[in-house]
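I hope you will forgive my troubling you with a question about protein structure. The matter concerns a single protein, recorded as an amino acid sequence and a row of backbone structure tokens. Please examine both parts with care and let me know of anything in them that strikes you as inconsistent. Here, with my thanks, is the record as I have it:
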Amino acid sequence: MSDKQVIQILNELIETSKDGQYGFAKCAERAESVALKQTLQARAAECESAAVELQALVLQHGGSPEDHGSVAGALHRGWVSVKDAFTGSSDHALLEECERGEDAALARYRKALKQQLPIDVQQTLGRQLLGVQSNHDQIKALRDSVTS
């Protein structure tokens, strides 16, 4: 696989991480529970850290790293904002949105790991996939524990 292809995959995952960072931060702002706010802020920080790590890999492979989320992520956040304005938001609804975002992130990481990537990239993405799966599982468990 060429460096150009590796960079493209990494930049897509940077966008995914940035989407997660922004999404978790936005949901943390809206959360009613202090404990949930803290959990979502921690998830946002983890996504930010993942993006920084991916950006370093892009630089190592001679590319220019993304520094923002995807258009789809921005549109989704915009839709969530509009929906909240009309229906209000509960912690349960916020957690549903977070889980939906983590479902998308899991799919993108799994797709990337099916590619013939350099070993350093495979190892990083494999480790980050475990983090995304952990986030997903935690958010799902929280969602299931909060009444709608």
Summary: Helices lie at 3-30, 34-60, 71-87, 91-113, 119-145. The two ends are 47 Å apart (CA to CA). The mean pLDDT is 86. The chain has one domain: 3-145.
